[in-house]
Amino acid sequence: MSYDRPQELLKPVKRRFITLTFALALMMELLPLPVGSTRWLPDFVGLLILYWAINQPRRIGIGMGFLIGLIVDVSTNSLFGQHALAYSVTTYLVMLRQRQLIMFNLGQQALVVLTLMLANQLIMALVRLALGSAFVGASYFLPPLMGALLWPLLTKLLLLPYRHHTL
Amino acid sequence: MNFANTPRFSNQGLRPGSQLLLCTLASLALLIGDSQFGLMDRTRDALSVVLYPIQRAVNMPMAAAAHIGEFFITQTALKQENAALRSRELAQSARLARLTSLEQEVQQLKALNGLRTGSLQAGQLGEVLYTARDPFSYKIIIDKGLDAKLAAGLPVVDERGLVGQITRVQPLTAEVTLIIDKNQMVPVVNQRTGQRSLLYGYGGGVEVRYLPAAADIQPGDLLVTSGIDGLYSEGIPVAHVTRVDRPAGASFARVLCQSIAGVQSSRYVLVLPPRAAMPPRPEPAPVPAKPKKKKDTEDEG
After folding, report:
1. Which residues pair with B212 in a beta bridge?
2. What is the pLDDT of residues B114-145, one digit of tens each?
3. Which of residues 77 through 106 in chain A touch B, CB cutoff 8 A?
4. ipTM beyond 0.85?
5. Among the listed residues B195, B193, B192, B199, the one whose alpha carbon sits nearest the alpha carbon of residue B239
6. Which residues constitute the domain of residue A84?
7. Counting one residue from A and one from B, how many pairs have CB atoms under 8 Å apart?
8. Distance between CA atoms of B65 and B76, rounded to whole angstroms?
9. Does B20 touch chain A if contact means CB atoms closer than 8 Å?
10. All domains in chain B, ordered by first residue
């Protein structure tokens, strides 16, 4: 797999497609997965928000991050505003440097994504600690690592429908 | 056209900084309102109804897979399971026979002594819809709610022991806080010694706190609910003691326990009916006259 950013011309991304990806990611959240899997499964919705914020900043911005965060809060049964706060902060950080991020190759992007996903987890952990929950241990910061490892794959996958030529 | 890199020609909407400020303020308000004042419970109820069909739909492929797996089970496995179940039933029927006679005896004795008798209703079976992905809260969602007349505070058990307590009831679903949650505690009694104590969840496990360092407690002791709180009926197995540390210089023993029920693994749970209403607490003893008055009278005199 080459880590270079795809250079070819792409078809325009449809709003329908973005909605579909988020719907799929939310379904993943609702799946009754075995108990241990949440220790390492990355936060797919968070990854998608970063992906679309980097690649389609006009469509997915801070406000959308906030709204999608609220939906995630409901579906994961966490406190209202927890994911919303984390996602709006990280989309803001993406917006600050979006022009740069889009020029990075996938390896560099994965590093940035790792930091941003860690920031997500950190914000949520701080919020929960401030509101009186017990800390769940250092394994809470494992999912961002998995997310960053999956980033190149995710990018290639989400670009597939928008190639002019099939592979 | 890939317009990710095309610059914005006109300034649309708020600047990112002010957008962030708005969103942060909104989410902080929501967080505080939800956690401290419970303002969002109505919204949560409504959204849970909306999410219910989606949850069911998402559960469907898993359930179908389990069904297919059950269909292709081998005959030897079935036979083995059948034999195991039969022997267990035999053992349990003997215990049950003894238990019914004991129960009758207890009822008679209680009637003789004019004590109130506990209810003997069966509970309601619930299926675990999903476990919340949020690692900070140890909660599960079951598929019975207001429609099955559940109420907050009812104990939830599985076939082995206590799982938790219903904390939130929504129209079609209910939220069960597991005993290992940080804010959950269960009054228990040590079955061997009869000593009462409180079992605290600490987020991922349970422990007995505030037990004197000299208390008689050993690894392997069974802790069952004591029933003096008016919520849990007495005698539900809760946890086994796994380790007892008596650190020198500390006045309390450190007692680690292992929950008996499949707290995070059971698929079906039983919601027990509410206990018969407890008599009201006795009035607090009258406060003795304050010595201050005495002083006043002395001053006057």
Report:
1. B252
2. 665 555 557 888 888 777 667 777 888 888 88
3. 77-82, 84-85, 88-89, 92, 95-96, 99, 102
4. no
5. B199
6. 15-27+40-157
7. 134
8. 21
9. yes
10. 41-113 (no CATH), 124-271 (2.40.10.340)
